[in-house]
Amino acid sequence: MKLIAWNCNMAFRKKAQYIQALNPDIAVISECESPEKLKFPDGIKLPSDILWYGANPNKGIGVFSFGDYKFELLGCHNPTFKNILPIAVTDGKIDFTLFAIWANNPADKEGAYVTQIWKAINYYEDLIKETKTILIGDFNSNSIWDKPRREGNHTAVVNKLAEKNIFSTYHKYFNQIQGKEEHPTWYLYRHENKPYHLDYCFVSNDFMEVLESVEVGTYKDWTLYSDHKPLIIKFNI
Known about the structure:
Blueprint: E1 2-7, H1 16-20, E2 26-32, E3 49-53, E4 60-65, E5 70-73, E6 84-90, E7 96-102, H2 114-123, E8 133-138, H3 154-162, E9 166-168, H4 169-174, E10 186-187, E11 195-196, E12 199-204, H5 205-208, E13 211-216, H6 219-222, E14 231-235
Parallel strand pairs: 1-2, 7-8
Antiparallel strand pairs: 1-14, 2-4, 3-4, 5-6, 6-7, 8-12, 9-12, 10-11, 13-14
Helix pairs in contact: 2-3
C-alpha cells in the first residue's frame, strides 16, 4: 500500500499526472480544488474514489483512491477543525482510520496551524487507536517553532501521539530527530536556501511494523509545481 501526501499549491487538475505516475493507492492532496473543478486531462488514470472538504472550491483538501479503497467521512467530524478529516477507509487489503490533515484555519485566533491538530487529536482521542490508525498531510509545523508556553505545540502533538504508539514514518525510517530533518518538504517562496520539514505521516505500530520505504520528493523535480514536495510512504500490505 502506497500513500502520498502533497500540498499541490492549488490547481491539482494540472498536476495530478505527476502524482499518478508514482502509482499511489491513496493520495492526500492539500490546497486541492473541489471535484466539480477537477477536470483531468485525457489519458491519465482517474481516481476510483474521491473525498473532498473545504469552504473554498478552489482550495480544500482532497483524498483520492486509485484502487479498491473507499472513503467515508465519519459522522463525528467536527467542522471546527475544518481540514482535519476522520475518514473510514474500507474495501482494500485492510480497513483503517485515516486522518487527512491540512492544518490551516485562520479563523482560530488561538492557533491556525499545529494548535488545530492538538485540539483535534484530543477531541478524537477515542477514535485514535493504537492499531489501524494513520494521520497524514500538511501539518504546517515543526518543533523548531515550538512556543514552550503555548499548549499544543508541535512537540506536544508528537508526544501525545506517542502515548498511543503512533509515530512519524519519516523519522523512524531515516532515524531522524524532530526539528533536525535532513529532507525538507517545503521551501519558503520556493527558495532552495529556505528549507523546512512540514509534512508528516504518523502511523500506529501495526503499520510501522510493515513500513517498507519513505521518500521525499526533490527540490529539482517538484519546485515547478509547488513549494511543497510529496511525502511518499509504502507499506508491505
